[in-house]
Amino acid sequence: MNQLIVMLDKQILRRFPVKATSVTFGRSSKSDIALPDRTISNHHARITVVREDCFLEDLESTNGTYVNQLLVDRHLLEDGDVIGLGKYQVVFRTELGLESQLKRLSLHPKLMDSTHTVWLQVLDGRKAGYIIPLLQERVVLGNLTTGQLLIEPDSQGQYIMRHVGMNAHANRTLAPGDEIRVEDVTFQFCRKAPNANSEPQPPEQPADT
């Protein structure tokens, strides 16, 4: 089950399980999560649940809605995202399994184009041959129970992999060909050479079933 952790000054105020199809934030006492502060609009933001996805939407608030310190109007939430609402922080946590993540993130190799310069190739399992594009955004694989991996670009354009919850010294810079194991699925990190003029070579295509 998805969960929201409401924090103020690094202190946890409450944990809110996401059971309904929507969750509202605001200064109004009628909000699902009421945040009594002048920095919060009466109707500030809303999370809408669509199947396995949770979308955050700003409701034209005065001070805006942020995710990981970036101003957003609408955002598909990923595990570990930090929502900024005035002086409050709300951490989004999910227990989605890898199978659900692959269904949402993976792409058939026939759909690759010139924008796909960095990707993870699925080597085994039901989605063998598919890819997960890494388009300058972070990807979380696995869940908190079985273990999570976070892959995201750094300021130098390198992709860093770390185990969620571990210290920074456990970070690993990925190189083309590196294999990553999450639950019972193996991934390979792939990257088009920066000076290559040709289109990225697609991985071996999955067999039609």
UniProtKB/TrEMBL annotation:
Occurrences of domain FHA (ranges): 23-72
PROSITE patterns, per the entry: FHA_DOMAIN (PS50006)
Family matches, as SMART domains: FHA
Gene3D superfamilies: 2.60.200.20
One Pfam family cited in the UniProt record for this chain: FHA
InterPro entries: Cell_Proc_Reg/RNA_Proc, FHA_dom, SMAD_FHA_dom_sf
PANTHER family: NUCLEAR INHIBITOR OF PROTEIN PHOSPHATASE-1
Name assigned to this protein: FHA domain containing protein
